[in-house]
Design goal:
24% strand; Alpha-Beta Plaits; 12 strands; globular; 292 residues; binds (R)-mevalonate; 8-stranded mixed β-sheet; Ribosomal Protein S5, domain 2
C-alpha cells in the first residue's frame, strides 16, 4: 500500500507555538510517498540509505513502525520512501514521512485507524524522536489545509505563491527548540513578551488573510516576525544574507520552521524571481491520502 502526506510551511509563529502562542500554518504541495509491503523482516529504503529498523538513520520511520506495532504486532515490513520535501529544511519532512508511513501501514495491515488516530501516533513519534514539540507538523501533514494553531481553527485555504529559498544548511528542530528553551529559562521576563508579540503577529496575519491579500501589511508582519526570531537566536548568517538579498529586490522574507538553517520564505509577487536554490509552492488542501 502506498500513502502520501504533504509538507508544511509555518507562515507565522514558529517557536512561540511551542509555548501555546498562536501560529499560522499551511500544508503545501510537496509530498512524501511511503510504499509499504508485508515482509518476513524489517527493511527501510529511503534517500538516507537502506537499513533494518534503525533509530539512528531512520528515527521517524523506525518509531512509526514501533508505535504501530503496539497497536498491531507485526513481524516484518518493507518501507520504501520517495519524497519531494527537502530533508531537515523546516518544511516538515519528518512529520510527512511519519504520517505517510503510518497511513500506509494502517491500509496494508487493515487496522482501521482514523486520521485522528494517525495524527495522535505521529505526535507520539515526534515526542519519541525530538523530546519536545508543539505537534503542529504531524497535525498539518495529516489534515492538510491552512490552520490557526493551537486551537486548530481551519482557515479558508486560498491560492497564493510562496517563494522558498533553501539555505542548504540543516535545521535541526530538537536543537533549536532546546536552544530557545535555555534562553527562556535564563530570561523569562524578556523572552515571554517576545512570544506574546509573535502571538499578536499571527493573529493580525490571520485577519489580513481573512479579508483578502494586503501584501504590504503581510510584508510588515513578516518583517516583524523575522526580527523577533532573530532576537531569540534562531536565525543564521546564511538566512540573514538571503533575506538581505531579497530585500534588495523589494521582497520581505523570514525563516520558516525551527531555523538555524533550513528555508527562507516570502509571499506576494514572487513568481518571476530568479533566485538560486529556490522554488515556488502553494497551499495544499489535502492531507494524508492513499495513492492508487
Ligand atoms: C518546527 O517546524 C516548528 C517549531 O515551532 C517546533 C514545533 O512547533 O514543534 C520550531
Amino acid at each position: 500500500m502506498k500513502a502520501s502526506a504533504p509538507a508544511k510551511i509555518i507562515l507565522f509563529g514558529e517557536h512561540a507555538v511551542v509555548y501555546r502562542k498562536h501560529a499560522l500554518v499551511t500544508a503545501v504541495n510537496l509530498r512524501c510517498f511511503a510504499d509499504v509491503k508485508r515482509s518476513s523482516d524489517f527493511k527501510i529504503i529511503s534517500p538516507l540509505g537502506i537499513t533494518k529498523l534503525d533509530f539512528e538513520t531512520h528515527p521517524w520511520i523506525s518509531y512509526a513502525i514501533k508505535n504501530f506495532s503496539n497497536i498491531k504486532p507485526i513481524n516484518g515490513v518493507e518501507v520504501r520512501i520517495e519524497s519531494q520535501i527537502p530533508i531537515a529544511s523546516g518544511l516538515g519532512s519528518s512529520a510527512a514521512v511519519t504520517v505517510s508511513v503510518l497511513k500506509a501501514l494502517d491500509a496494508e495491515f487493515e487496522t482501521g485507524l482514523s486520521n485522528d488516530d494517525i495524527c495522535e501516533i505521529a505526535r507520539k513519534v515526534e515526542i519519541d524522536v525530538q523530546g519536545a514539540g508543539s505537534g503542529t507538523d504531524p497535525f498539518i501533514s495529516t489534515f492538510g489545509g491552512m490552520w490557526l494553531i493551537p486551537e486548530r481553527k481551519k482557515l479558508n485555504c486560498k491560492d497564493f505563491n510562496i517563494l522558498v529559498v533553501d539555505t542548504k544548511e540543516k535545521s535541526i528542530t530538537s536543537e533549536m527548540v532546546k536552544k530557545v528553551a535555555e534562553l527562556r529559562n535564563k530570561y523569562p521576563e524578556i523572552i515571554d513578551p517576545i512570544f506574546d508579540a509573535i502571538d499578536g503577529i499571527s493573529l493580525r496575519a490571520m485577519e489580513v488573510f481573512d479579508t483578502g491579500f494586503d501584501w504590504k501589511k503581510l510584508a510588515d508582519l513578516i518583517f516583524l516576525n523575522q526580527c523577533l526570531l532573530r532576537a531569540i537566536g534562531v536565525s543564521s548568517s546564511k538566512i540573514e544574507k538571503i533575506i538581505e538579498m531579497l530585500s534588495e529586490k523589494g521582497i520581505t522574507a523570514k525563516l520558516t520552521g525551527a531555523g538555524g538553517g533550513g528555508c527562507v520564505i516570502a509571499i506576494g509577487d514572487v513568481e518571476d524571481l530568479k533566485i538560486d536554490n529556490s522554488f515556488i509552492v502553494k497551499p495544499e488542501k489535502e492531507g494524508v491520502r492513499i495513492e492508487e
